[in-house]
Amino acid sequence: MAHIASHNPATVHAPAAGYCMGLELTQHRRLLFISGQVPERPDGTVPEGFEAQCEQAWRNVIEVLAAAGLGVEHLVKVTTFLTDRSQLVTNRTIRCAKLGEHQPALTVVVAETVDSKWLLEIEAIAAE
C-alpha cells in the first residue's frame, strides 16, 4: 500500500474543504490514471441537471477505480472541469460526500466541455 502524506503548511492559505494543498506519495506499487469521466450512463444517456450529472460522473470515476481493485481512498489527485461557477458549491458537496474523510490534491477549473450536454468532467489519479 502506498504511503500518502498530506501537506497543508501554515504559510499557504488553508484549503476550503475536502482537499489538501499537497499530497506526497511514496512506496507505491501501482498508479491508475483515470481519463476524464463525463456524466454519461452506461447506455449513453445523460442525466438532467448539474446535481444528477455530478453524481453520475463520480459514479463513473468510482467504477473505474473498482475495475482496478481500488477505492476512493486511493485517489491522490482529482481535477474537475465545471461549465459554470454557479456549480462550485454543489460540486464540493457531492465530492465531499463521495470521498468522505479522504482529501486528495484537487483542482477545479471552469471550462467548456467537448459536448455541451455535459456540465462537468472529472479526471483523477489513484495510487496503491
Brief account:
The chain has 128 residues and is an alpha+beta fold. It has two helices and six strands.
Let me know the largest β-sheet. 4 strands, mixed
Report Rg: 15 Å
Instruction: Estimate the helix proportion, in percent.
Output: 10-25%
Uncertain runs: none
Give the count of helical stretches: 2
Number of distinct beta strands: 6
Distance between the first and last residues' Cα: 5 Å
Q: Please, could you describe this protein's structure?
A:
The chain is of the alpha+beta class. The chain is built from two helices and six strands, in the order E-E-E-H-E-H-E-E. The chain has helices at residues 50-67, 88-99, and strands at 3-7, 22-26, 31-37, 75-82, 105-110, 120-127. The strands form two sheets. A four-stranded mixed sheet has the order 3-6-4-5. A two-stranded antiparallel sheet has the order 1-2. Strand 4, helix 2 (88-99) and strand 5 (105-110) form a beta-alpha-beta unit. Helix 1 (50-67) packs parallel to helix 2. The N and C termini lie close together (5 Å).
Keywords, please?
single chain; 128 residues; alpha+beta; 4-stranded mixed beta sheet; two-stranded antiparallel sheet; 2 helices; 6 strands; 23% helix
List the helices and strands and how they pair.
Blueprint: E1 3-7, E2 22-26, E3 31-37, H1 50-67, E4 75-82, H2 88-99, E5 105-110, E6 120-127
Parallel strand pairs: 4-5
Antiparallel strand pairs: 1-2, 3-6, 4-6
